[in-house]
Amino acid sequence: xxxxxRYIIVFLFGALAPIAATAxxxxxxxxxxxxxxxxxxxxxMLDSLFYNDQVIDNQTISVVGYTDYVGGTDYNNTLSxxxxxxxxxxxxxxxxxxxxxKQTIGKGEVARNIEKQGGYxxxxxxxxxxxxxxxxxxxxxxxxxxxxxxPIQQKMNIATxxxxxxxxxxxxxxxxxxxxxxxxxxxxxxxxxxxxxxxQVQIEGHVCCxxxxxxxxxxxxxxxxLSTNRAKYIYNYLLEKGIDNKRLKYKGFGRLRPVVIxxxxxxDEDRNRRVEIRVLSR
Length: 282
What we know:
By secondary structure, the chain is an alpha+beta fold. 31% of the residues lie in helices and 22% in strands.
């Protein structure tokens, strides 16, 4: 069994973390009811493992999502796949090559002969099945990198109260989760804030193409709060990277502040579908 999994097992039995691994090299990641994202303890532990231990770069994985029996069949099939997809996106964002992921599937609800109120917590999970292929490569601890110009840091020099658009931030349609290709831009935002400790910002989410509601539907949470949840996703990312919460705020504006009043093209939609950073103080 490799070092990555041994680390998880030690943590599991020492601190009852929401992560487990079996002798068959299956990593089990547990989710809250109805959620397709890690809760904070799970995310923090995985981030710590990747940044301070090692990244799995000589292995392939299969990612399999499950739910408990609560909810209908179609809902659970969709949720199980969303959980698996989220885990795959996380592993890729942390350095795993997409080619190392053999499959990402959702198997719906786990059958139970005896039901209990609220379902079984152990059924709300994703199994990451690892196939070992040799040694792993150590990953360096997380650091602030300033070896190349950071365009976000340059943009952050605007006057207090002004905003700039976060370029190259891509969300999955109808969801508040960013695509893996967005991570370099989020890292630039983190680095800019880390190297300018006096700057306080507000993360502002905007959506397009909404006519009859104040905000768009977030398919992850089933709330009419997509712009807010997208801003909050970036807020939480920065918190987890170590930025003080006193320096951060987030807010969703829905369709209230469009750049283009009436979208007539895909380009118009992209201009309205955005995340902005407002400098509050420095």
